[in-house]
Amino acid sequence: MRYLVTGGAGFIGSHVALTLLDAGHDVVILDNLSTGHRKAIPSGAQFEHIDLVDSSAVDRLVAQGPWDAVLHFAAISLVGASMAEPYHYLRQNTLTSLNLIDACTKYGVKRFVFSSTAALFGGVDRLPPIPDNALVDPGSPYGESKFFVERALLWADRIHGMKHACLRYFNAAGSDISGRLGEDHRPETHLIPLAIDAMLGRRPPLKLFGHDYPTPDGTCIRDYIHVADLADAHISVIDQICDRSVTYNLGNGKGYSNLEIIQSVERVSGRSVPWEWAARREGDPSVLTADFSRIHQETGWQPKINDIDTIVGSALRWRENHPNGYSD
User: Fold this and answer.
1) Alpha carbon distances (Å) from 195 to 53, 96, 180, 283
2) pLDDT: which is higher, 123 or 59
3) Staple partner for 6: which of 1, 74, 241, 271, CB 3.0–4.6 Å?
4) What fold is seen in the domain 191-222+254-327?
5) What is the mean pLDDT of residues 257-283?
6) Which segments of 188-285 are extended strands (E)?
7) Please, are residues 251 and 297 in contact by the beta-carbon 8 Å criterion?
């Protein structure tokens, strides 16, 4: 098969591209390297340094099909930044995705896999786990921008017949088990790498935002899914969208609190994590965990790496071996 992967130099996109290559497929990666890393592009993938804002360049690349599917990961994705710059996020994520979707329908792409988000459910607290038919109520412009794209894909199906999978995943974590790829965001906002770097003395003490949530230890609970399991889920849905479009939630189905993540890093490393309390952040729900039963029933997919210490351990090994991330 031949696949086009946008954002393939980023954390999740690179792991999905690697999984496709490991399975023997041809992969072309499109990325503008604004947040991704050239060294994260897996060996064997063809790289096209293109910005999705440039609709002409996108058209030229998509016209070089045929593509068995397009997998779309490219986006700006900081929830806090989207609260500070809402229209930038709404414009950027929507415009770039529309350019890609337009080109795909123009040149006959039949299958489209979209990297969506659990931020679609972040507006209010709700009883966990969250099913994929739950009411969409984004808690940030970032989440709203992803929902705009989901709606655009709905119309691409109705009008042009391009089938899609919208994968709404929760907290991606960990790294390639064999150590080929890892997580290197700039700035880093994810709890596990932040806790690891604080433990390693590479950053100031970790801040935990809020200790009065209605949870057993007062801190937020999140569903952590290993990035390799996410990659497998993307592969599993491609066959599902030959004649229909689907929407799935992806997660482990269980949550870990912020304090439990710190405890896991300490267990795995054998060292303490310096941390301190901080005020709540606007828009943080108490609990976000996924009901992934539908994708399991329809594809057989389920997470293989569902132990938090294993997830943390894979992230720790990569951070220890790459103290400066992909700059090493």
Assistant:
1) 35, 33, 21, 22
2) 59
3) 74
4) UDP-galactose 4-epimerase; domain 1 (3.90.25)
5) 95
6) 206-209, 221-222, 224-226, 246-250, 256-257, 275-278
7) no
Instruction: Name 79's Cβ contacts closer than 8 Å, sequence gap at least 6.
Output: 119, 122, 139, 140, 142, 143, 283
Instruction: Quote the pLDDT of residue 219.
Output: 97
Q: Which pLDDT tens digit goes with each residue over 271-286?
A: 999 999 999 977 678 8
pTM equals 0.96
* pLDDT exceeds 80 at position 122: no
Nearest to 249 by CA among 301, 201, 194: 301
Q: Which residues are catalytic?
A: 142
Q: Beta-carbon neighbour count of residue 267 at 10 Å? A: 12
Q: Retrieve residue 325's tokens.
A: 């991330």
User: Other C-beta atoms within 10 Å of 151: how many?
Assistant: 11
Q: What angle do CA 25, 29, 33 make, to 5 degrees?
A: 155
Boundaries of every domain in the chain: 2-173+224-250, 191-222+254-327
CA distance 273 to 194: 10
